[in-house]
Specification:
122 residues; mainly alpha; single chain; elongated; 57% helix
Length: 122
């Protein structure tokens, strides 16, 4: 069942305040020119937007009004990080190809014969 929540007057006012902030020509241009989510978060911080609270959700949804897809940027950055880690992994695997492998084993050794004995690990 889909129940529509009623927006409180305070939330509606904050939504409009954030909308006004991000649609000013200077801020709009800065947000549209941002190439990373870190830049957008920095701008949000400058605007007084609480990045850990409900303000950030309002901010992200309003970014779409000015043509900035923050969620797509997050996904693109994650893909880039995965690709970079894959390259690093392949490089490490290639460099380690001629090195010997070391395997470690561990076993439990009983420290006593009674039931209260917890044993020791080597």
């Amino acid at each position: 069942m889909n129940v529509k929540r009623k927006t409180s007057p305070a939330d509606a006012a904050r939504f409009e305040q954030i909308k006004t902030q991000i649609t000013t020509p200077e801020t709009k241009a800065r947000l549209q020119e941002a190439t990373t989510t870190a830049e957008i978060r920095a701008i949000a911080g400058e605007l007084g937007i609480d990045q850990q609270g409900r303000d950030m959700g309002k901010f992200i949804s309003l970014l779409k009004l000015i043509g900035v897809d923050f969620i797509a940027m997050i996904h693109d950055e994650a893909t880039q990080r995965r690709e970079k880690l894959a390259e690093i992994s392949a490089d490490l695997h290639a460099r380690a190809g001629g090195l010997p492998r070391v395997r470690l084993w561990s076993a439990a050794v009983e420290s006593g014969a009674d039931a209260e004995s917890t044993g020791a690990f080597a």
